[in-house]
C-alpha cells in the first residue's frame, strides 16, 4: 500500500515524541504529515484541510485530552468515520482505556512501542480501514440501510480473522442505528457466548436491551458490573442515566454517589450537577462544579468550560429567587463568564459568553441591554455551536419575547442531539433541551390537556384510565408538582404497584425528596397514609415516612 498520498495528523504534546513519530512515518513512506501539540492547533488546521489518518495521544498537556478533542470534532463534522483514527498513548488505566474504546478508534497503541510494531499497526489499520471504507462513507451519509447491505455482501464473501470480527462488530453498531435493537443484541450475545470477558460487547448488549424495552434485564446486567472495580463507575453512570430517563432523580443521585468524586469524568460531573439541579439542590451542584473547576485549573480549555457551567448554575439559582434576592447570584455568574477565556480570541467562546450575559441582563431587569447583546455580530451563527450554547440562546430569545426564534433554535438542538453518542453528554444535553422546550411553552399546553382529562376520569373513579392521562402529563412536564401528585394518587387509588416505568413506592420516595410547599406536602402525607392503609400492596412501615427513603 502506498502511503505518500495519505494525509496524516499527529497530535502529541511531547515535542520529542512528536518528532520521533513523524520520523517513523517518513520512514514508512508518508510525506504529508501535520504535527500539532494540542487540540486547538489541530482543530484550527482540520477546519480547512482534509485528514485521512489521525495519530492521537490521550493526554495533551494543559489542554483537553484526545478523546474530548475527537468527540468535539466528530460532533462538528470535521472528523467522520471515513477518517482513520488511532490512539498512541502511555496510559494503561482502565478508566482511560475505557474512554478511548468508547470513541471506536481503529487501533490503540501503548507506549513504549517498537518501530516494527508501530509500522505493523499503522499498515494493518489502514488496510482494514480501506476494506471498511465503502461502509463508513454510507454511514457518514446516514444511509445505514445501504451500509448494512454492502456489509452483508462483504460477509457473504466469508472473510476470516480480523476482517470478519470487524464486520460483525460494525454490523451490530449499524443495527443499533437502524433501531433493530433485538438483532443487535443477538450479535453482542453471540460474542459474549464465545467469551464473556469482551467488555465492549457487554456494553453493546446492555444498550440494545435497554433500547428494546428490556429494562429489567439491562439493569440487572449493569448491577452485576457494579461488583467489579473496573466497570463500577461506568455501570453506575448508565444506571443514573436510565433513572434520569424515568425522572427518578433521587435514584440517579444515589448511583452517582457510588462513584468517588475524584474519579468523575467531566461529562459525569456535569451529569451529576444537573441531577442536583433537577431536584432544586443548586448549592450541591455549585459545590461539585467548583471543586471540579479548581482541580482543572491547569487545563485552561476545561477550566473555561466548567466556569460557564457554573455560571449557568448561578443564573438558574437567580431565576428561582425574587428580584430583590438574586443580585449576588447574578454577580457571581457575570464574574465567571468574564473570567472564562479572558486571554483567548475565539468567536465561538465569545458567542457562548454573550448568550449567558444576555440572560444575566434580563434577570437584572435590563431588557434593552439583553436585546442589544443579542444583536451583536455572529450571534445567529449557531449551526456549528454546541447544544448548551443553543439552549442558552433559546432562553435568551424567549426572555425578550421572541418565541419564533427560540423555536427555530429548539429544532436545531433536537437535530444535533440525534448525533450525540456519548451517554453522559446526551443525557445532560437532553435535560437542557427539555428545559428549553418547557421554557418556550411547547409542552405545557398538551400536558394540561392530559391532566384535565385525567381529573375528569379520576372524579368518575376511573382510576386506571386516569393514571394513563396523568402519566402522559407527567412525562411531558415532570417539573410540575401537581402532575406528579395526581399521578401518584391515581396509581395508589388504582392499587397499582407499577405503571409503565414507574414503581409506586420509588415514586413516593422521589416525591419526598422534592421541595414542596405546605399544601403539596400535606397532600403527599395523605397519599402516604393511603399507601400505608394498603400495606398488602405497598409494604410500607407505617411508623415513619422516612422508612420509604431508607429502602432506597
How far apart the termini lie comes to 59 Å
The level of helicity is 55-70%
Global shape: globular
Strand order of the largest sheet: 2-1-3-4-5
In terms of quaternary structure, the protein is: single chain
Rg, Cα atoms, Å: 26 Å
Modified residues (4-aspartylphosphate): 57
Organism: Paraglaciecola aquimarina
Pfam families: Response_reg (PF00072)
Protein name: Response regulator
Can you describe this structure?
- The chain is mainly α.
- It has helices at residues 15-28, 39-46, 66-75, 94-102, 115-140, 144-156, 161-177, 181-194, 199-211, 215-225, 232-245, 249-257, 266-278, 282-295, 300-319, 327-339, 347-363, 367-374, 387-399, 403-417, 423-440, 444-459, 463-476, 481-493, 504-512, 518-533, 535-538, 546-550; strands at residues 7-11, 32-36, 53-56, 84-89, 107-110, 498-499, 502-503.
- The strands form 2 sheets. It has a 5-stranded parallel sheet with strand order 2-1-3-4-5. Strands 6-7 form a two-stranded antiparallel sheet.
- Helix 12 runs antiparallel to helix 13, helix 13 (266-278) runs parallel beside helix 21 and helix 15 (300-319) packs antiparallel against helix 16 (327-339).
- The modification 4-aspartylphosphate is found at residue 57.
- This is Response regulator.
- Keywords: Phosphoprotein.
List keywords for this structure.
disordered C terminus; mainly alpha; 66% helix; 5-stranded parallel sheet; 552 residues
Amino acid at each position: 500500500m502506498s502511503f505518500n498520498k495519505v494525509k496524516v495528523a499527529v497530535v502529541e504534546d511531547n515535542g520529542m515524541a512528536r518528532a520521533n513519530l513523524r520520523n517513523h512515518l517518513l520512514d514508512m513512506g508518508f510525506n504529508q504529515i501535520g504535527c500539532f501539540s494540542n487540540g486547538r492547533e489541530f482543530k484550527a488546521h482540520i477546519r480547512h484541510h482534509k485528514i485521512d489518518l489521525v495519530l492521537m495521544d490521550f493526554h495533551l498537556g494543559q489542554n483537553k485530552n484526545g478523546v474530548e478533542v475527537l468527540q468535539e470534532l466528530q460532533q462538528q463534522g470535521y472528523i467522520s468515520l471515513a477518517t482513520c483514527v488511532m490512539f498512541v498513548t502511555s496510559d494503561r488505566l482502565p478508566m482511560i482505556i475505557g474512554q478511548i474504546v468508547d470513541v471506536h478508534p481503529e487501533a490503540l497503541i501503548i507506549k513504549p512501542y517498537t518501530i516494527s510494531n508501530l509500522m505493523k499497526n499503522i499498515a494493518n489499520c489502514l488496510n482494514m480501514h480501506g476494506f471498511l471504507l465503502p461502509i463508513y462513507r454510507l454511514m457518514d451519509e446516514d444511509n445505514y440501510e445501504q451500509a448494512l447491505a454492502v456489509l452483508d455482501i462483504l460477509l457473504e464473501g466469508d472473510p476470516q480473522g480480523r476482517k470478519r470480527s470487524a464486520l460483525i462488530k460494525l454490523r451490530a453498531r449499524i443495527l443499533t442505528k437502524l433501531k433493530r435493537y433485538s438483532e443487535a443484541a443477538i450479535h453482542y450475545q453471540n460474542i459474549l457466548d464465545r467469551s464473556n470477558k469482551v467488555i465492549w460487547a457487554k456494553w453493546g448488549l446492555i444498550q440494545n436491551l435497554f433500547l428494546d424495552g428490556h429494562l429489567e434485564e439491562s439493569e440487572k446486567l449493569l448491577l452485576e458490573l457494579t461488583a467489579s472495580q473496573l466497570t463500577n463507575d461506568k455501570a453506575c453512570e448508565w444506571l443514573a442515566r436510565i433513572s434520569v430517563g424515568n425522572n427518578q432523580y433521587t435514584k440517579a443521585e444515589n448511583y452517582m454517589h457510588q462513584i468517588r468524586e475524584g474519579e468523575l469524568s467531566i461529562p459525569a460531573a456535569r451529569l451529576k450537577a444537573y441531577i442536583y439541579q433537577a431536584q432544586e439542590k443548586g448549592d450541591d451542584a455549585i459545590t461539585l462544579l467548583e471543586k471540579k473547576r479548581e482541580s482543572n485549573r491547569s487545563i485552561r480549555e476545561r477550566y473555561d468550560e466548567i466556569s460557564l457551567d457554573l455560571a449557568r448554575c448561578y443564573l438558574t439559582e437567580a431565576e428561582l429567587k425574587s428580584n430583590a434576592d438574586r443580585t449576588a447570584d447574578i454577580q457571581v455568574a457575570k464574574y465567571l463568564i468574564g473570567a472564562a477565556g479572558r486571554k483567548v480570541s475565539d468567536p465561538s467562546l465569545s458567542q457562548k459568553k454573550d448568550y449567558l450575559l444576555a440572560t444575566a441582563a434580563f434577570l437584572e431587569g435590563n431588557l434593552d441591554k439583553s436585546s442589544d447583546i443579542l444583536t451583536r455580530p455572529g450571534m445567529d451563527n449557531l449551526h456549528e455551536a454546541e447544544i448548551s450554547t443553543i439552549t442558552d440562546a433559546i432562553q435568551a430569545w424567549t426572555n425578550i419575547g421572541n418565541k419564533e426564534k427560540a423555536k427555530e433554535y429548539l429544532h436545531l438542538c433536537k437535530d444535533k442531539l440525534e448525533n450525540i453518542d456519548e451517554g453522559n453528554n446526551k443525557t445532560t444535553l437532553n435535560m437542557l433541551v427539555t428545559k428549553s422546550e418547557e421554557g418556550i411553552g411547547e409542552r405545557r399546553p398538551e400536558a394540561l390537556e392530559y391532566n384535565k382529562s385525567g381529573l375528569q376520569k379520576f372524579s368518575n373513579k376511573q382510576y386506571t384510565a386516569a393514571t394513563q392521562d396523568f402519566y402522559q402529563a407527567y412525562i411531558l412536564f415532570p417539573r410540575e408538582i401537581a402532575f406528579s401528585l395526581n399521578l401518584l394518587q391515581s396509581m395508589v387509588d388504582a392499587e397499582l404497584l407499577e405503571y409503565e416505568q414507574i414503581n409506586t413506592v420509588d415514586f413516593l420516595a422521589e416525591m419526598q425528596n422534592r421541595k414542596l410547599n405546605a399544601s403539596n406536602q400535606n397532600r403527599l402525607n395523605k397519599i402516604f397514609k393511603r399507601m400505608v392503609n394498603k400495606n398488602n400492596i405497598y409494604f410500607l412501615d407505617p411508623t415513619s415516612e422516612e422508612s420509604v427513603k431508607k429502602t432506597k
